[in-house]
């Protein structure tokens, strides 16, 4: 087992820089999730750790050893691919043992490792089958099994669940989490699904356009996002952003006003001095709207569409100023399309961002 | 029959008629022809004549031997070469790949007569570039058209030159259908490039290679152009006469269509038998 460290890791394709000096420390045994939208460089960063992509600048250490120039097979890693990458002409058993057999690993040890992986993943029954005879979930298990038999120091997962249906994805997510607890090995996991990130990770790394935006525990990212991008990316449905203007600012906080009918004024405990009239963005999570009268300011909206899921309701609404919102209200089961709905905002549960998207605290 | 189906068949009828006249009937007709004595007028039904001659004819056995020799040597050599060419063409290290792809495929596009003429010039005993090369490195010149073994080698070289690129392109398509991450997974598993080729590429290419082999077997069984144009109608002295050439000689030189039909059916039967054997040997394990 080993930790992992990235120092100023950079990747360029010709003139195009796709990873801009990534710095990251991953502790031994930690489960780290790289998350971000498509094309943010998360898979590239993972492939650089694996050695499948060259590093232009910087340093990658695995278990304290610099591995920049080490062959992928010498890095002590094992990787699970999005497409599973199973050898289609081999049985499950042969798939698991192929690497070990090709490297002349003693037969007894190979058999032991394959048996152990099969037991951990409960695929004993499938050993004689070929990949095309397996379901998506079973293939994914075999792909993970192939990583386990290598007994790596670090597991790398490249969007391993994205080809599975929703139900199976939840099930496999739990299994991967269980596997991490059982093996205790460092795992680096790439996904664009923030729910996977939130549920699996000890630490989430949010990437955007090749830059690490924020690193932290899932709930820290949820409660205390560093910027508008992270605030919008973490949490489902995503955070609402309302354009506002600062009406006054002093040492205790700032007041903002929303373009609403009736007008909404909200005082926020933001310490950064901001000039009066500055345009800022107010962030409110859908689940943080309160019952009218119970918060710091009331907001009346026009309901466009109400979705009632039973346990909760999502109200898609617009303000008088025309801004779109999603409001989650478990008790609003009777709200209908085209109704007026009044909810309350709590200053404690809102976030303020400047025009660049940086958080104002 | 419902009227909708009748209308459909009415539309299909012109095609079916042409198909029956020019495809089905010649097959049946030539089969019947093989039982006729076509050297008398009018032709007479004499089942044992052509088939009896076939099993006893030294010219037939010579042509069969030549064809099988070409088949046994040329097809495996060409398929192996085509596989290597396909792997090289697929290499990301190769620059100007489309150019090479075209160059390898080009022989198929070249007219047969033109290519035969060029080969005759290249392998000419007196002024051909091949003999010049051979003598320049200290060996005796080869009589490509007068020595039966040399003529056979020439035929094999010519056929391989013409068809290896074509097969390489088919195999290349197969190679490109193997997902790249399978190789990445193997690289992470510390599987060397050679092992990857032997244990991943070749097994996954098996159906494509088999397809090429079957096509090549059928092509070789019908081989005609090269021995006809390059080695002077199967020369020297029948040394490169193939079944296709024998069929031509019997049918269109001696006008013995009955015997030619018997040879044609033998060629087809052998091609089917060898192809089936191929498929059976390389079948997927259950």
UniProtKB/TrEMBL annotation, chain A:
It holds the Pfam family OB_MalK. The keyword DNA-binding does not apply. It comes from the Bacteria. One of its GO terms (molecular function) is ABC-type maltose transporter activity. InterPro entries: AAA+_ATPase, ABC_transporter-like_ATP-bd, ABC_transporter-like_CS, ABC_transpr_MalK-like, ABC_transpr_MalK/UgpC-like, Mo/tungstate-bd_C_term_dom, NA-bd_OB-fold, OB_MalK-like. Residues 4-234 form the ABC transporter domain. Keywords: ATP-binding, Cell inner membrane, Cell membrane, Membrane, Nucleotide-binding, Transport. GO terms for cellular component: ATP-binding cassette (ABC) transporter complex, substrate-binding subunit-containing; maltose transport complex. It is a peripheral membrane protein. The keyword Cell inner membrane applies. Belongs to the ABC transporter superfamily. This is Sugar ABC transporter ATP-binding protein. It comes from Paramesorhizobium deserti.
TrEMBL record, chain B:
The keyword Nucleotide-binding does not apply. SUPFAM superfamilies: MetI-like. It is a multi-pass membrane protein. Keywords: Cell membrane, Membrane, Transmembrane, Transmembrane helix, Transport. It comes from the Bacteria. Residues 64-278 form the ABC transmembrane type-1 domain. Coiled coil: none annotated. One of its GO terms (biological process) is transmembrane transport. It is found in: Cell membrane. This is Lactose ABC transporter permease. It comes from Paramesorhizobium deserti.
């Amino acid at each position: 087992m080993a930790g992992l460290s990235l120092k100023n890791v950079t990747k360029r394709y010709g003139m195009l820089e796709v990873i801009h000096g990534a710095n990251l420390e991953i502790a031994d045994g930690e489960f780290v999730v790289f998350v971000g939208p498509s094309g943010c460089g998360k898979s590239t960063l993972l492939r650089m750790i694996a050695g499948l992509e060259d590093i232009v600048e910087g340093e990658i250490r695995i278990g304290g050893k610099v591995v920049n120039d080490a062959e992928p097979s010498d890095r002590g890693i094992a990787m699970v691919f999005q497409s599973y990458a199973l050898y289609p002409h081999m049985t499950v058993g042969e798939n698991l043992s192929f690497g070990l057999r090709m490297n002349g690993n003693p037969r007894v040890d190979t058999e032991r490792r394959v048996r152990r992986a099969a037991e951990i993943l409960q695929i004993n029954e499938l050993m004689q089958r070929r990949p095309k005879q397996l379901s998506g979930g079973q293939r994914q298990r075999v792909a993970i099994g192939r990583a386990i038999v290598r007994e790596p120091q670090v597991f790398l997962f490249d969007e391993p669940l994205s080809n599975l249906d929703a139900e199976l994805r939840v099930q496999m997510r739990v299994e991967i989490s269980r596997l991490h607890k059982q093996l205790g090995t460092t795992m680096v996991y790439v996904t664009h699904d923030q729910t996977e990130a939130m549920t699996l990770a000890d630490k989430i790394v949010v990437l955007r356009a090749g830059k690490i935006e924020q690193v932290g525990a899932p709930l820290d990212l949820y409660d205390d996002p560093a910027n508008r991008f992270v605030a919008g990316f973490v949490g489902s449905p995503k955070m609402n952003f309302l354009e506002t203007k600062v009406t006054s600012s002093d040492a205790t906080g700032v007041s903002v006003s929303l373009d609403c009918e009736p007008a909404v004024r909200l005082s926020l405990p933001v310490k950064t001095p901001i000039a009066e009239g500055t345009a800022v963005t107010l962030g409110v999570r859908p689940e943080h709207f309160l019952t009218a009268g119970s918060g710091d300011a009331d907001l009346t909206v026009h309901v466009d569409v109400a979705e009632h899921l039973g346990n909760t309701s999502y109200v898609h609404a617009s303000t008088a100023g025309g801004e779109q919102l999603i409001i989650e209200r478990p008790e609003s089961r009777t709200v209908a399309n085209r109704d007026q709905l009044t909810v309350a905002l709590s200053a404690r549960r809102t976030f303020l961002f400047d025009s660049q998207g940086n958080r104002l605290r | 029959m419902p009227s909708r189906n009748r209308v459909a068949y009415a539309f299909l009828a012109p095609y079916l008629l042409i198909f029956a006249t020019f495809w089905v009937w010649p097959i049946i007709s030539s089969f019947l022809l093989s039982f006729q004595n076509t050297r008398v007028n009018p032709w007479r039904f004499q089942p044992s004549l052509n088939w009896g001659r076939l099993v006893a004819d030294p010219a037939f056995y010579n042509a069969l031997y030549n064809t099988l020799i070409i088949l046994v040597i040329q097809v495996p050599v060409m398929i192996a070469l085509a596989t290597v060419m396909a792997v090289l063409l697929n290499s990301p290290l190769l620059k100007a790949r489309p150019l090479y792809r075209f160059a390898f495929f080009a022989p198929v596009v070249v007219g047969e007569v033109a290519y035969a003429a060029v080969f005759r010039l290249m392998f000419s005993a007196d002024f051909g570039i091949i003999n010049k090369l051979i003598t320049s490195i200290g060996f005796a010149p080869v009589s490509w058209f007068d020595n039966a073994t040399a003529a056979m080698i020439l035929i094999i070289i010519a056929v391989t030159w013409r068809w290896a690129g074509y097969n390489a392109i088919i195999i290349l398509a197969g190679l490109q259908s193997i997902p790249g991450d399978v190789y990445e997974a193997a690289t992470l598993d510390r599987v060397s490039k050679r092992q990857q080729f032997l244990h991943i590429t070749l097994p996954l290419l098996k159906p494509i290679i088999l397809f090429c082999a079957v096509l090549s077997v059928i092509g070789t069984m019908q081989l005609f152009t090269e021995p006809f144009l390059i080695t002077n109608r199967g020369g020297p002295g029948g040394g490169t006469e193939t079944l296709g050439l024998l069929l031509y000689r019997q049918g269109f030189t001696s006008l013995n269509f009955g015997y030619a039909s018997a040879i044609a059916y033998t060629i087809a039967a052998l091609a089917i038998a060898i192809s089936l054997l191929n498929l059976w040997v390389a079948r997927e394990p259950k």
